[in-house]
Amino acid sequence: FMNILFECGTSSISLAILVCPVVYTGYNESLLNLNDIFNKPECKGTLDESVSPPVVRFTFPLNMTSACGSKFVVSRAWMRRIFADFSNIQTVNVSGVVQSHDPTTGVVTYNAELKYFYSCAYPLEYLINNTQVEDPNYVTPLFMPALGLELRTRVYVQVKATNLTAQYHVLMDRCYASISPYPTNSTFYNLFVPCSTDQMTIMYENGDSHHARFSFPVFRFLEQQNQTVSTYHLHCITRLCESSTCGTYKVSDEATTLSSVPIVTKNDNCKYACWLFDH
After folding, report:
1. Do 107 and 216 share a domain, yes or no?
2. Residue 31: CB partners within 8 Å, gap ≥ 6?
3. What's the half-sphere exposure (Cβ side, CA atoms, 13 Å) at 175?
4. Which of 130, 131, 142, 262 has the fewest CB atoms within 10 Å, measured from its CB?
5. What's the pLDDT score for residue 142?
6. Helix (H, G, I), strand (E, B) or coil at 89
């Protein structure tokens, strides 16, 4: 297993195979193939002698249409810790094999067969911060006035995935505002959670395409009622789900009042609320 190193990147997977054992066995870099693909130059290995010891490198993108024959398998498991907000989490495993091609002609060979396996697991859930816009067409970025946004101003939020195959859709599991930029140990307010949506939050699209959209009116935290402006941060826990299974995760369409204290208030001494968002 020490003869291969691989890097599971966010946009590609890179493999590095020690070339000395390959040559010793009777092969060279041109006789190593990735998942039995021989006719695609982008799937061939290249010899890198700038490092010691020298290696054969393979690099391919994380895209089902151009991943050089890699297998994509989605699994599901119960999670804890940073993914504790999910009842379960989906993981996509990308795997394959680099193996030798024996050029020997005839009935028998004295060359050993080489196989180098790789496997990368990617959780399909993320805790992300969003960019907000101020129009329902999701074109104009939200402008933050010096004195803040006026209460009840509707903010439009979009979570969008790019370079994504049709197999996956974007699904928001939970969006909430917190006073601290780090949501742990901070006062927070749920805009929506699975099977429960704040009555002021409007969900437009979720789990149906490569983007999810909703809007909500600007509010104040009671904890900050004596401050000139109310400052808080928006967070969304988002997953990529297979298009055929997104419906099993969707939140309910029914309007439900949450059990938290009412915080949509207006301070007579301050008519504006200021929002700061993470990037």
Report:
1. no
2. 22, 100, 101, 102, 103
3. 27
4. 262
5. 76
6. strand
> What pLDDT sits at residue 210?
86
Q: What's the pLDDT tens digit per position in 118-134? A: 999 987 765 454 556 66
* Phi–psi pair at 224, nearest 5 degrees: -110, 25
Indicate the residue type of 167.
Answer: Q
Quote the tokens at residue 205: 């699209």
CATH of the domain at 47: 2.60.40.3210
Residues 166 and 178 placed together within one structural domain of the fold:
yes
| Last residue within a domain, chosen from 82, 106, 123 | 123
Say which amino acid occupies 159: V
pLDDT confidence of residue 275:
33
- What's the number of domains the chain is made of? 2
Q: Is the pLDDT of residue 197 over 90?
A: no
What was the pLDDT predicted at 224? Answer: 84
Question: 159 and 236 in contact (C-beta within 8 Å)?
Answer: yes
The answer to whether 54 touches 46, Cβ cutoff 8 Å, is no
Domain residue limits at 37: 4-123
Domain boundary among 89, 105, 123: 123
Same domain assignment for residues 119 and 173: no
